[in-house]
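Fold this sequence, please.
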Amino acid sequence: MSGKEVVLDIETSNTFQDVGEYAPQKLDVSVIGVYFYETDEYRAYELDELPELWPRLERADRIIGYNTKNFDYPVMNRYYSGDFLTFPSLDILEEIHKALGFRLKLDDVAAASVGHRKSGHGLQAVEWWRQGEKDKVKNYCLDDVRVTKEVYEYGLKYNALAYEDHFGNRKGIPVDFVLRAGESKPINLTMPL
């Protein structure tokens, strides 16, 4: 893993039911949770703190997440002057889909790969946010970041992840998470003039 990689997950303050369709670009961010390898730091950012986060993501060698390209990035792009889809990224779900031809929940991959599940689900986080329980949302989001980081590191170490099939058999998922030279490129959209 590179010293400038970042693991990321977001929570939203509304749901697809609220916006009337599956349209991540219409959802609102409540919290963006990140882990910075460079500083060995977990941090949850609220909306008013996002201007602090963007330059750190722009300097990252790669952003690592689970379903980031189809969910997190379209939501985040509402708040950013560029396009996160152009960032060097490792979307673990995308790699699983390439290997298997179908998608799996992070919870199931984590259980079979690293031996434990997530601490909850995103709809709970939306409810907590609406009830003003911001710390619960931040903790939940950072727990998801921790699980994603563990799954990433497992895949990096073993070139495989795992899941249980419908019969309860543990199955392997071949993956290649190595960051190769030239895959990362600096992006700079938020530099002051």
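The chain has a mean pLDDT of 90. The radius of gyration is 16 Å.
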